[in-house]
Amino acid sequence: MSVVEVDGSLGEGGGQILRTALALSALTGQPVRIYNIRAKRPRPGLQRQHLTSVRAVAELCSARVEGLKLGSTEITFYPGKVRSGVFSFDIGTAGSVTLVLQAILPVLVYAPGPVEVTIRGGTDVPWSPPIDYIRHVLRRLLERVGFGFDVVLRRRGHYPRGGGIVIARVSNPLGRLNSFYLRERGAVRVVEGISHAVKLPRHVSERQADSARKMLESLGVPVHIETEWYEPRRDPHLGPGSGIVVWAVTEHSILGGDSLGAKGKPAEKVGMEAAKKLLEDLSTGKALDRHASDMMLTYAAIACGESIIGGARLTSHAETNLHVIKIVLPEVKVQFIEGGERDKPFVVRIVGACIRRSS
């Protein structure tokens, strides 16, 4: 079988290209060569979290990989069959656990039996969705389109110490996905959220929650934001950190907004940032927030039938994801019904490749 060539400098030129190409390669059995990996980043090539993503997808599909080393700007990935079982991966730094999950979750749809994957690293770190977004927004969106999985948070990990532990479980992989319709969000029913602070005073989590709640009450629906904090003697985390994720449960979907704490950043600003993101995305009326507008494209591309996706913002990540999908799955049809401009709301029709579990 010929090897598909994927230029890692496409679009935003980051790790998104690698993650999408690997997942699609694992599912189709199509070998891929990815070059110019992360060419547009300050430190090009594979960093720890990218190495872990490659190793995780490779182990899940019994792949052979050439060029797999720290800093490598080129790998060739020869997938085998997707398998079930119990797996464990340690990024070894505060590299993002959620970006590793982003790479492997589409593969887990097609496992021949139950799968459990433990990942150690950063759960709430810059430039990636926080773990609470995966647990309470993406998981519930995918459940709505037929892919059920559990995410257990054992311990949070923040930059620079890391040390987070997350377990993802799929008890009954379907072996295929049906198309889905997620165009408009419909009425907002309730807003929920989690504000956390570890190895920090309790008031940090409370102030984050209070500032977000004040902004979100403008929606005129119930707002319930939990706070998570640990007594110093019982706090198992390796280093300090805080953050908040808020989400709106709507008539047809779930949308989220998030923000991380940082040294010198007031807790009130953290809460306001998360609330502002959610309000901005809700104001478009579309079914998916800025993160899911990107992530759900991959699932539409592998599904059977025609999916409709309404996104709050066509990010550079989403544009790049579509480029990679077209390269690895040329049979997938993509048509913008509305929008198509960078950072604007959009509606796209995707006729998927209808990938099924191999026997």
Report the uncertain regions.
none
Secondary-structure element pattern, one letter each = EHEHEEEHEHEEEEHEEEHHEHEE
Biggest β-sheet: strands ordered side by side in the sheet? 1-2-4-3
**Number of separate helices:** 8
Gap from first CA to last CA? 19 Å
Number of domains: 2
Largest sheet: 4 strands, mixed
Which outline best applies? globular
The SS-based structural class is alpha/beta
- In total, how many beta strands? 16
Q: Assign the CATH topology of the largest domain.
A: UDP-n-acetylglucosamine1-carboxyvinyl-transferase, Chain
Strand and helix layout:
Blueprint: E1 4-7, H1 15-28, E2 32-35, H2 48-60, E3 64-66, E4 74-78, E5 85-90, H3 97-108, E6 115-121, H4 131-144, E7 150-155, E8 164-170, E9 181-182, E10 188-198, H5 202-216, E11 223-228, E12 241-250, E13 254-260, H6 267-283, H7 292-302, E14 306-311, H8 316-328, E15 333-338, E16 346-351
Parallel strand pairs: 1-2, 5-6, 9-14, 10-11
Antiparallel strand pairs: 2-4, 3-4, 6-8, 7-8, 10-12, 12-13, 14-16, 15-16
Keyphrases for this structure?
single chain, 359 residues, alpha/beta, UDP-n-acetylglucosamine1-carboxyvinyl-transferase, Chain, 2 domains, four-stranded mixed sheet
Describe this structure in words.
This protein has 359 residues and is of the alpha/beta class. The chain has two domains: 4-182 and 288-351, UDP-n-acetylglucosamine1-carboxyvinyl-transferase, Chain, CATH 3.65.10; 188-283, Dihydrodipicolinate Reductase, domain 2 (2-Layer Sandwich). 30% of the residues lie in helices and 27% in strands. The chain has helices at 15-28, 48-60, 97-108, 131-144, 202-216, 267-283, 292-302, 316-328, and strands at residues 4-7, 32-35, 64-66, 74-78, 85-90, 115-121, 150-155, 164-170, 181-182, 188-198, 223-228, 241-250, 254-260, 306-311, 333-338, 346-351. The strands form four sheets. The chain has a four-stranded mixed β-sheet with strand order 1-2-4-3, covered by helices on one side. The chain has a four-stranded mixed β-sheet with strand order 5-6-8-7, with helices on one face.
